[in-house]
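> @MW can you paste both from yesterday?
MW: sure, first one:
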Amino acid sequence: MSSRNSGPLHVPSLQPNAPKGGSVLGRALGRCVLRLGGWQIVGEFPNLSRLVIIAAPHSSAWDAIWGLAAKMTMGIGIVFVAKREAFIGPIGWVLRSLGGMPIDRKAPGGVAAHIAARIRASERMWFAIAPEGTRRKVERWKSGFWHIARRANVPVLCAWFDYPTRTIGLGPLVELSDDMEADLLRIRALYAPHRGKHRGA
């Protein structure tokens, strides 16, 4: 592990409308993990009660460790999905405690429609997803996050990993248009300066 970022760890403040989550112990643990790994957090959260967060580049299983540590540190309630079969026994309890939501991939109307409906029905819900859909390099991002955000009528917050500088970044916030292809190209271009553990976006 690296300790190249040895200054005080910046923890973005949660705005009044942001969903809260976690505990004092969880925040302390998350902060400890980030400090041991030499990571810093830059950017700020929007004052919104509902949105979709995308995180990239996703090139390593370590992304989940650092991402969850940042989530715990900031005390934010973020929802993510995993296949329904994973929510069994102790692992299921851990996943739920971290914000996991079981999803039936064969649900009528599709996963995107189901998640969008949950966002619309929630007083506060931030939903996170990796747009690449895999740790391998892909030529085209999956469009699921776009469909979810459009159906839920919420913006997309870009979150990113930059391993060379050990930085987890928040922003910018992107309002979507009616042109999916243009939006996907525009958003992916925002990630061009950032590099994951094994590759860029």
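MW: second:
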Amino acid sequence: MTPCEKIARTVNELFICSPVKGYQQIRTPFLYPDGDIIDLYLATNGQDVTLTDLGETMRWLRSQTLSPRRSIKQNQLVEDICLNHGIGFYRGMLSLRVHEQDNMAQVVTRLAQAAIRVADLSFTFRQRTAETVSDEVAELLHERALPFYRPEQLPGRSGKVWRIDFHVRAPQRSSLVNVLSTASKGTVRGIVDHTVAGWFDLSHLKIGPEGNKFVSLFDDTVDVWTHEDIELVSELSEVAYWSRPDQFIEMLAAAA
């Protein structure tokens, strides 16, 4: 008896099995957080039968944010979910091996529950903090072999000491980088005003051939920034966007 025949004889009303592009697609009654249906797929290779989501859960998760990467913590959460449910995670796919004696309803439900748990990580994207984004920036700088200090405490002309998120040592010119990140529109004005005041007070550090480049990195994975906010900051620093990491790295590496 095939896995699909087992489904048809036991829980046919809940799980619908049909052939799709070389797989047996199982339409489950479970949903992703936005209401999309969770579909799973049976792949047969000789005597081996594997149940997989074909990477749909991770694709769905990526669609919930503009950020091209997940944080170390989020990756660890995905691995923990798979471990707790006894699910394999390889090349972005959730999967498990199906054995002849397995209860198909339980197997399908277990993989679907893992998919739901992974999809629920989308809520952590909506609760991003400046500290979380700064950790992701540090990962990127490390990957691109750009040495940096974080954070950097620098005195301004007024005597006030300003906390700069990153001091990046590029071959041509060093950069001071501030990360602007918030999920609340109510805090945007305070963040922008603080950033502008800091760059103004530290403007003496830009002078001379060895002067530092000032870079304001906006976390645009959350739509809270207005054109006016960006214009204010751009008067005193170069502006980069976290959704465009390659452009950000090129800005740090450029001599001008």
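> thanks! The radius of gyration is 24 Å.
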